[in-house]
């Protein structure tokens, strides 16, 4: 009898040990993750010249609060640590080091801006810390061969520009194109993508290229130069402040080119309102998400859910500002990636899941669009649809266009 009890206890102990071992084996953590918490780091320009993008970080913080209220991800609460970098690359470096070495986050999320991300890309890749869903579309941030720990959310600027080139060739094949671009990775990628998309016609169609620095007070002289060259199509690869200046100067000069504006500068509240809604009429851009101000989406379930979220978690935010819908969409994708991770919350698995998105459809994605990534193609958004500003809002037109070319 005693022998039987001993055997039973031994068997029970072994079963418990195996159970614990199995549970332990199923859970894998790196610095920043535990049974109860996932630490996430972010820099946001809450101040400075690009504070128009602060709403991105505010919306994302609110979204993660909502997820925490719903129980978190697999029972783990999301701890988003945010620091202001004022869109200053040296400040970004300082704050990201603090997040990684001081706060010990599992990964960085949505660092905002091309220059800011460029400043920390080598550091994060050297540390093997995911630079997850970076808020930039420069080609260097979707380059898994050279930067395997970096994946951007924004449409790749080269891909986006090739989509504009397709539109130009189909609708304005004889255009004389003047290019205004920001002298950084963003602007240069747009220029490269435009040339790639125009192919053999690029040399004859592009009659002028002028750049500006982010420290320049205005782009007035650049706009004057492009008009003087005889351009009848303005390809404007800039950010909201300078795009608004360009729109006003085009109007002041009584110049009426076809005006194509990159997606970064397309928010109505950040660019077109400051420029003047009336003089912005007819500008062309592209999009991959639903505009909450567009009446066609008033009964859309995804937009309704977004409005309900804003009312409860970010009531002071402007529901119609696409800066906020952008922040919402990226946060939604972050949650999807973390859910895919399950209990393997290692930095390596975070990147593995980000690079294995299969037909993910965000609640604010345009109908017919889905996100797909692979270990060799980090581009999340490769499908877009053209849109034109009608003086009040953007109107979508034409088919969904997908860039199937190389990332860079």
What is the compact description of this entry?
The chain is built from 13 helices and 14 strands. The chain is an alpha/beta fold.
Notes on the structure:
The protein is α/β, with parallel strands linked by helices and 408 residues long. The protein has three domains: 1-27; 37-155 and 295-377, Rossmann fold (3-Layer(aba) Sandwich), CATH 3.40.50; 158-287 and 387-402, Response regulator (Rossmann fold, 3-Layer(aba) Sandwich), CATH 3.40.50. It has 13 helices and 14 strands. The chain has helices spanning 2-26, 54-69, 89-102, 114-127, 157-171, 185-198, 202-205, 220-228, 240-252, 268-275, 301-313, 322-341, 347-354; strands at 28-29, 37-44, 77-84, 107-109, 131-134, 150-152, 177-182, 206-212, 233-237, 258-261, 284-287, 344-345, 383-389, 394-402. The chain has a five-stranded parallel beta sheet with strand order 3-2-4-5-6, sandwiched between helices. Helix 9 links the parallel strand 9 and strand 10 (258-261). Helix 2 crosses helix 12 (322-341). The longest helix is centred in the first third of the chain and has 25 residues, at 2-26. It is globular. The termini are far apart. The relative contact order is 0.13. The model is unreliable at 1-10 and 12-24 (pLDDT under 50).
Topology overview:
Layout lengths: L1 H25 L1 E2 L7 E8 L9 H16 L7 E8 L4 H14 L4 E3 L4 H14 L3 E4 L15 E3 L4 H15 L5 E6 L2 H14 L3 H4 E7 L7 H9 L4 E5 L2 H13 L5 E4 L6 H8 L8 E4 L13 H13 L8 H20 L2 E2 L1 H8 L28 E7 L4 E9 L6
